[in-house]
Each structure stands twice: as C-alpha cells, then as structure tokens.
Amino acid sequence: MTQNEEVKKLVQSQFAKNAEKYVMSESHARGDDLSQLVNWLHPDPNWIILDIATGGGHVAKALSPHVAHVFATDLTQQMLQAAKKHLHEYQNIWYIIADAESLPFLNETFDAVTCRIAAHHFPNPENFIREVNRILRPGGKFVLIDNVSPEDQQLDQFMNTLEKLRDESHVRCHTIPEWKGWLHHWGFEERKSRIRKKTYDFPTWVKRTARSEQQIREVQGYIQSADRTIHEYFSVTINHDQIISLQVDEWMALFEKKSSNNDTV
Fold it and tell me: Exposed, middle or buried, 239 (CB in 10 Å: 0-12/13-18/19+)?
C-alpha cells in the first residue's frame, strides 16, 4: 500500500467512525459561509453542481433549492449515508463515493464545483485542482473553503502539528499562496476571496476526532506549552488551566475556469 493509499484509508476510518458528529457539528452545519457561497455563485436553476468531499452534506443542502442537480461525493460511504439520512427530503441530491483526486465524471460536466472544509485531508491537492479543472465547463465556477495555515513557518508548523495530534487523518492546511499557485497553474482566475477567524469551542472540537482521553491530554499539553506568540495569533483562551477556545484562519475563494485553457488534460 502506498503512502497516499494509507492516508486515504485513515480518512475513511476517521470519518466512518464520526459521520454523525460531522452531520450535527455546529461549525460545519452553520456559518455565514454557506449563504455567502450561494450569493457568490449566483446559481442558475438549470445548473448541475458537484460538491466534493461533501461530509455532512451542508453545502449540498444549501445549493439544492437553487439548481437542477447536486452531485455530492465523498471518499467514505458511511459519511454519505449519514448525509443522505439527514437530507432525505432533498430529491435532487445524488450521492457518489469518489476520490477528490480521481473523480468518476466526464470532462466539462459541471457548471460549478464546491469543496468546503475538506481539502486539508487530500494528500495531493494539485491533483484535486487538476480534476476540478477537468470536470468543469469553460467559464464554470469553483468555490474553495478551507482552513489555511499562516505563511510564518513557526505558526504553520504549530497549526499542522496540532491538527495532526487531534486528527490522524489530517494531511496539511496549506497557505493561501500555495493554493493560488495550483489554481492559477490549472487555469483558474480569482473572482472573490475573504479570510476570517474561525473560533473553535475546544472541548467540542477535540472530542470530535479524539480516540481517547490520553489523546485529548496530548493535544491540550501541546497547546499549553506553546509560546506567547502562538497563543496570541490563534487567540487561545485558557481559564483555570482549561482550554476554552482557539481560532484558526479560514479562506473562502471563488474562482472561474478560463474559457480557453491549454493546461487541461
């Protein structure tokens, strides 16, 4: 088994065990980015949209009333089953097991593609962007939403180490320049973007993926031992030696596929 295959097996294992938690997660189910995503896309009633790594299906749910069809893909069957269970009344959502880096769709099939709070689990993000380019129609829109790491190396290392300690299926939160480099290479032009501070309720956040109390203590210890600069950047709140909350950067960006692109393969 290759390293990439091992990573994807971890992802499947992690999300299979915690599928219901992600469906019900406040940080995934709520947030103004869902309504903002619809506003940015200006979806047409005839559109066919692909939501990659749909998780709890929150993006698919937000877009379903505005388009003809939403194809919701995920690597984990149990995750799709949980999403479908909670979205059973939405008749135009179709659920497909699929790898974000090797999508089972023909070229230029979709009017728009979305991927929200998932890409940090992909071992080959450039392959993912290449696939989005391939299955999008010329002029099609792509909205990417994900946690991003700061460009400062110390802060980047802290964020990604913390995420890996909490969730073994985590691969990497990339920087915005990294994402823009891949997107521009594969023929995307940026139309809109924003970055915001997203607050995590620490007890809820750490328990969503932790396998044991020992793992939770390791995550707590790593945060508490970090220096002041890190605590300030991530707005770590500690009360009586208990971590209450912290913040991470979340980037939301709208891109458009160039009408003529010689890089498509």
Answer: exposed
In our burial notation (b when 16+ CB lie closer than 10 A, e otherwise), range 88-123 reads eebeebebeebbbbebeeeeebbbbbbbbbbbbbbb
Q: CATH number of the domain at 3-151+168-198+249-257, please?
A: 3.40.50.150
Report which DSSP code applies to 102: B
The per-residue pLDDT for range 86-111, each reduced to its tens digit, is: 899 999 999 999 999 999 999 999 99
Q: 142: how many CB neighbours lie within 10 A of its CB?
A: 24
As given in the structure block, the two tokens for residue 50 are: 């692909």
In one letter, which amino acid is 23?
Answer: V
Candidates 19, 84, 105, 28; CA nearest to 59 is 28
Q: According to the model, what pLDDT value does residue 29 have?
A: 53
- DSSP summary character for residue 65: G
Copy the structure tokens of residue 15: 């999300």
**What contacts 123, CB < 8 A, 6 or more positions away?**
3, 4, 7, 8, 101, 171
State the Cα angle at 202 between 210 and 218, rounded to 5°.
45
- Label residue 165 by pLDDT band (50, 70, 90): very high
In 3D space, the residue among 234, 122, 246 whose CA is nearest the CA of residue 174 turns out to be 122
Q: Which residue from 5, 6, 7 is spatially nearest to 169, judged by alpha carbons?
A: 7
Domain boundaries, the chain: 3-151+168-198+249-257
Question: Using one digit for the tens of pLDDT, what is the confidence trace for 177-226?
Answer: 999 999 999 999 999 999 999 999 999 999 888 889 999 999 999 999 99
Give the C-alpha separation, 64 to 197, whole Å: 27
